[in-house]
UniProtKB/TrEMBL annotation, chains A, B:
<feature type="domain" description="Nudix hydrolase">
    <location>
        <begin position="1"/>
        <end position="127"/>
    </location>
</feature>
<dbReference type="InterPro" id="IPR020084">
    <property type="entry name" value="NUDIX_hydrolase_CS"/>
</dbReference>
<dbReference type="GO" id="GO:0016818">
    <property type="term" value="F:hydrolase activity, acting on acid anhydrides, in phosphorus-containing anhydrides"/>
</dbReference>
<keyword id="KW-0460">Magnesium</keyword>
<dbReference type="GO" id="GO:0046872">
    <property type="term" value="F:metal ion binding"/>
</dbReference>
<dbReference type="InterPro" id="IPR000086">
    <property type="entry name" value="NUDIX_hydrolase_dom"/>
</dbReference>
<comment type="similarity">
    <text>Belongs to the Nudix hydrolase family.</text>
</comment>
<keyword id="KW-0378">Hydrolase</keyword>
<dbReference type="Pfam" id="PF00293">
    <property type="entry name" value="NUDIX"/>
</dbReference>
<dbReference type="GO" id="GO:0005737">
    <property type="term" value="C:cytoplasm"/>
</dbReference>
<dbReference type="InterPro" id="IPR015797">
    <property type="entry name" value="NUDIX_hydrolase-like_dom_sf"/>
</dbReference>
<protein>
    <submittedName>
        <fullName>NUDIX hydrolase</fullName>
    </submittedName>
</protein>
<keyword id="KW-0479">Metal-binding</keyword>
Length: 154, 154
């Protein structure tokens, strides 16, 4: 089962997002965990590899069960770990083979094109206290079928 | 890849632990996530199934990458999600086919026999603020080879 870690960097009321070429959708930089990594190590490493910057004050905001379905059949299932960083050190790449990187006003998380579940995750990471949990079911074409969310505050 | 969720219930300076028959080691009640569950749902369900009580004020405290090694070879790898609950509703089972359930003074987390990594997790869950991340490497006989820990506070 895949484990994906991504990270939303927030600095001066802006967020660093990657625009993927295929659909033009925006994502928080991240990628696949490697064997033996912790989710924290994976999020920091993947973010640095994709952006060239070091995230500061990194904290886990969400753990999500991602399910791809074709009708009632589960096609794929993986775990997504979403972190936030309250600042970065360094200057991000402008473009990589993964897509275009840029800072956006945090308010644009409401409107930029992205997977529906990602908007839920990223708005929580940017604005809410505590930790979010949930399951997102998508079609193979990445249309959201359902989301079930829980959250807690320490 | 397996995903295991467990939960440490803390109430009146006591913790509810399960003593497993095989080695006599103590664990926080939990078990395997099912397809499509969130980690939160899995922790609450497994805890209730194993103890007969409902955990209150449930919050994620740690996410751990668990690796079983034989020499340099990785034999197995799974994810462990450790939650805390600040109280419970109901009266726990005394004994189940999983082992013996009992409340213990929270200080006994320091001394009760358990897997070394579990002590790290449970002491953090009981006493520390924030979220812990890390990787535990064990032998097939569940001797700890290494632990690498990170943590963060919101």
């Amino acid at each position: 089962m895949q484990r994906i870690a991504n990270l939303l960097a927030v600095q001066n009321d802006q967020v660093l997002l990657l625009q993927k070429p295929r659909r033009g959708w925006y994502v928080a930089p991240g990628g696949k965990m490697e064997s033996g990594e912790s989710i924290y190590e994976a999020a920091v490493r993947e973010f640095h590899e994709e952006t060239n910057v070091t995230p500061l004050d990194v904290h886990l905001k969400g753990v999500y069960t991602m399910v791809i379905k074709n009708g009632e059949q589960v096609i794929d299932e993986w775990m997504l770990y979403t972190f936030v960083a309250r600042g970065v050190k360094g200057t991000p790449f402008k473009e990589t083979r993964e897509g275009k990187l840029a800072w956006h006003p945090v308010g644009e998380l409401q409107t930029l094109p992205m997977a529906k579940g990602d908007r839920t995750n990223l708005l929580f990471a940017a604005h809410q206290k505590g930790t979010q949990y949930g399951t997102f079911e998508y079609t193979e074409d990445f249309e959201l079928i359902s989301e079930h969310i829980q959250s807690s505050i320490e």
